[in-house]
Structures are given as structure tokens and as C-alpha cells.
Amino acid sequence: MVTAKPRNITVSIFLFVAAIVAVGLFSLSYGQVFLGMGRLVDVVLSPASDPIATQIVYELRLPRLATGLIAGAALGISGVLMQALFRNPMADAWSLGLLAGGQLGVALIVTAAAFAGPAAIAFLTAFQGMGLTSGAVIGVAVFAALMVALSRRVGTIALLVVGLMLGFTVQSLVSIVSHFSNRVGGRVYSGWNDGTFASTTFGDLSFMLPPIAIGLVIAVASAKGLSSLLLGESYARSLGTNVQRLRWQTLAAVVLLVAPVTAYCGPVTFIGLIVPHFARAIARTSLILPLIPLAALAGGLLAVAADAVVHLPWEQHFLHLNRVLAIIGAPVVILLLLFSRSMKGNT
Amino acid sequence: MLKLESLESGYTGSTGVVVEPVSLGLNAGSFVCIIGRNGAGKSTLMRTIAGLQPAISGDSLLEGCPVSAMTAQERAQAISVVTTDRVSSPGLLARDVIELGRQPYTNWHGQLSSGDRDIVLEATRHAGAEQLTAMPFSSLSDGERQRVMIARALAQSSKLMVLDELTAFLDLPGRVEIMALLRRHARNTGKVVLMSSHDLELSLELAGQLWIVHEGQLLYGTSEALISNGVIERVFDNDDVSFDSSQRRFKLTSTSHAALA
């Protein structure tokens, strides 16, 4: 479908890119150490002349910024897919517990390695990227299948509550599990109770990107079918959509988009839930294809902006990424529940 | 144009057969109303004919082509459907809904050609939905939604249109208008329109042919034939209402009158 307001979308895309560039420059220069524009330019042109600044930019701030962009985009797109697939405006990988599944998958893999002995730990350390990502893939996929099965039995809100409860359950399981695994595998498995974009290197990004890229391709390929599913399953089938195949395809895309993010950044909340609503408001439609670039950009922007707030030169590191996201996200969700036509009085 | 060959509809589970095997043919331009008591199996029959659920045995053929053998896309180009399913997707405009009717013809990402746009406009005009296109679908009234869904089905350019209970939420003038629109569409374009309805009197008036689903059987014929054979009385009469064949209306029976008095 060509969208109702293509010009609206083009302008928004331009504005999003501009905002991302602005926030990006801001978070490259602000932090515990302030780097002015001049020093940033030096870092790019003659890195040897300012080794400290170069190290800060290339080893800390740039990987963090890139991770935030990629993770935010992936979560935003997965939110669009989840809300269309579950026909539920409150669905996303976090709210329906898929991120919790990924977290659990990673925790179990690390623990298994810890108990298997030093050889397994060495193996996991060497193949950290693959090990963590595949653990997350399995966890996200299992929980996704579970939620799909459950969505046939319970309504929108009940599913949401179940998803959030799964999140709490897994948080507890992970703290118990990590208590045992930390003694041996602490290096592999640390800083996991909260989402963060700060613990990834450029090396990690090379593991994160390929699954996300494949997920994006599948997402784009599923867009037409998901648009027909907006009318419900019967209508989608009468329009020639193979609903069964579409379901699996979309879930595969969600898993590929979300699992790497969970593996490297932990459970990043709210982005996937609220970004699709912004995208729909901007595109003035809920047809899927035009929402994908908008959700990717809005998700990326929200992620890097929240991350910039986290890493402002506070006197001590007290703000966590998910706290910042909750300050923005939770009121948005409440407003949606109170004022959105489709959520009011829905069961 | 539409042929049912020993079509038996129902479910494989405990529900079993809903409508026993039936064979019949319909010419191009037919406008058929399907009536029957609640739960008689109208929807099951219609979903089976439309290929939305598999037949237990037999098949429906559209211009000689068995529906069960069509690919999903071929079927979508041949048969359009309007159901009672409530569509509630936030942010979906009426125009989006109508344009989705072109999906069986568009490329992998659903791009509309200028030909598609013309068909959408034409369908919108035919269904009298021009005023609604820019409005969010969820903000429309029941009658307006039905118009949009009909426009979407028209945009699908199908040979067969299957509409389930679509006039259920409409007031009388609304029903007449929609049914007249569908009858005109069938006559003018040579398409076959099957619609189920609870409105027996209106169906008797407007349908070229009536299908009555009753106790697992499909009884069919013109209004005149079904009335003179006494089929209507046999199916619908009970202690409280009886069909008056001379006036083609249902009346309260004398026992019912007595009870009310």
C-alpha cells in the first residue's frame, strides 16, 4: 500500500535522522570527560594527536552509541511486528515476556558452562558472541511460542499481565542462577539486572548485526501479510494471506531482532511497546510497511537519547537505562490505556 | 458460473456434518440470500463455499475451477468475503481498509498501481463510502463500517462475493439500501453474490434465489417456488408466528394473540 501521507513520512524520516545526529554528537562529547567539537574533529582526523580522547570515543562512546541505535531500531521494528501479530496494541517483546525468555536462555547457558567446568567456560569465553546469542534465541523463541499458544486462550490485558509476570519470575531466577555461576563465570555474565548499551564492543556488534539484519529483511517481507492481518484472520485469509506461515515468519523475525539485543544489552524495556504508537501517529496509518522505517528511527532515537541521559556527567552513576525509559514509557502506556479507543474497555 | 458438487460442509470433530451434500448451479448475475434459524449452519456453508474452511466432501466450482484446488492468491482474486468479524485496529483509515482489497493483485510490498487506485475509487463510489475514506475505521458506525467492508470486497474484483450477516446491525432503510446495492452489483457486473440474512421478508422480496439451511439440508429456489411449496411455513412457523403466503409476511398466530391479550 502506498501510504496516505508519503510526504509526511519523508519529512519525519529527515527530522528523525537530524535528531539522531544531534543526540549522537551530544553523547559523543558529553560524559564524565567533556570533549568539545574541536577534539572530536581531531579524533577523526588525527587520532594519534589525542590518544585519550580517541580511546574514549572509539572504545566507549561510539560503540555505545552504535549499540543504542541498532538495539533501539531492532526493538522498535519488533514492536510493530508483535502488535500486528498479536493484534494487541500493548504487545512487544518485553511486555509479553520474550525478553525474559532470552535473559533466561543466556543465564542457563552461562550456568551450564559454569557447572560443566573450566573447559566449557573457556569455550564460552572464546565463543561468547555465538553462545550468548544462541541462548537468547532459544529462550526468546520458546517464550514466543508459549505466548502465541496462550494468546488463543486469554484476552489482551491478561496476556500482558502474564508477560510482565514472566518478566518478574525470570528476574528472580536469573539472580538465583547468577549467584552460582558468578563464582566461575563472572566475567561472562555480569551487569545483567538492567538494560545497558555500554557493555558492547565493536567486536560484539559484529555478532549482533547479522541476525538483526536478517530479521529486518523478514520483517519487510512480512509487511504486506501483516497489513492484511489488521483486518483479522478470516479477512487476511480471504485476501490470499497464508496466516499460518505468516505467523511463523513474523515470529522468526521477532526472535532474530530481539535475541541479539537481549544477549548483549539485557532486557531493554518500553521501546518496543511505545515506538509503534509514535510511528502510527506520524504515518497516520497502521499499514505495516511505512511503520518499519519510522519505528526503526524512533526506536533508535529513543534509545540513544535515554542512553545520553544515563551517561550525563552525574556525580555518581545512579541512573539506569530502564529507569529513564520507564519515566518516558510508563506514562505513555497509561495514556494509551486511558484514551486509546481500542484499549478502553478491552478485555 | 458457481457450481456446488455434492458439497458437504461441517467439521471433522464432534460437531460433524453441518450441511449435507448439495449440488446446484448458479448463473452469472445471481443474487442469493441464505436464510435459516440461528445456528442452522449458514456461516459454515458460506465459509466452505468461499474456501475459508475445507469441505468434508465435494467441492464448489467457480467457472469450472474447483475452489479447493486454487492457490491462496487465485482464491483471493476469485472470491471476496465480508464477515461479522469486528475489525479493531487502531490507526487504520477507511481508505486503508478498502485498499487492502487490492492485495491479491499487488506486488510483494502491496504497492497500488494507478489501475488499482481507479478500481478502489470505483468500488468506494459504488458502495457509497466516498465520505468515509479519510476517517479512522474504528470511529465509524456499524452501517458505515459495512459500507467500507463492501467497498473493500468490491475492490477485490472477485467473481463471487460472500457476505455473512452483514445487515444484522443495520436499521431497515440501511438494510434495503445495502441489499439493493448488492443485487444491482450482481445484475450489472455478472458477479455472483451470496449473502446470509436474518431478514426473511426482505430476502423474499429482493433475492433472485433463496437458500434455506434447515436441519442439515439446503433447500433452494425462487421466493415464489418456496412460498407455493410451503417450504417457508414448514421451516419458520412456530406456535407464535406463522407465514402469511398471500402477503409474504409473518404474523402472530391466534394463540400468540390470545396469550398477549
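qc> Chain B touches chain A at residues 50, 52, 72-73, 75-77, 79-81, 83, 85-93, 95-97, 99-101, 103-104, 106, 108-112, 138-139, 156 (CB under 8 Å).
qc> done
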